[in-house]
Amino acid sequence: MIRLPRRIRVIGLVLLLLFFHQSNAFGQIPCDINLDGTCNCQDIDPLNAEIASGEMNLFFDLDGNGEVNFDDKVFYFDVSGLDLADLDLDGQVNFNDLNILLQNLNSTSTSHCSGDINADSQINESDLLFFLNSFNGGILTWSGAKNNSWQEANNWDPAIIPFNGIKVVIPNNSSNSSVILAGNIVTISSLLIESLSGLTIKNDSKLILDGSVDLLIVLGQFVLEPGAELDVVSE
To answer: What is the mean pLDDT of residues 69-85?
Structure first.
């Protein structure tokens, strides 16, 4: 691997920053690296692919630290004034971006606009968690709109079954109380059960709370049936 001298890398970084500045001055948007007049994934995806490959083409070393990694993508978005969770690059993080990610979930891609936020060439729960943390603080709220099954996506807002790292709220105004059906192991970051709501964990099921603060707040009804387990893991 050929590593350029630090001075050359710093000069390259300065030129990149000047490019962004001049682009703004002439009406170009900062993320339009290929100067085609638009900000799209043709500008971002080559960087995404380089990070995913583990190669060290220093053309993509945007932060000038001698390495090509996720920090360079963060630098790109910071300078461009965009949010990393903005998949369609319209300046907003909203349900349009969420729908893009859900349509491509559990697929292989190096495209940011398809949902590969962390640039590892996989669109999976890591990207979804990153998105939700930006979108709504990583919270899924129980609605019970369809039935009482925890494992039914349409009972949640947004319509995603909770997974490891997610904060769950079961609010007062839900249509049904929530039930973790028998034989399921559920891991989330924290759980809030409001005063007029409830959660039942059926036998042979396990709820794992793996987070740092306010792991379990119960103001309503919390039922552990015989044979059910609750495991609280504090970081």
So the answer is: 92
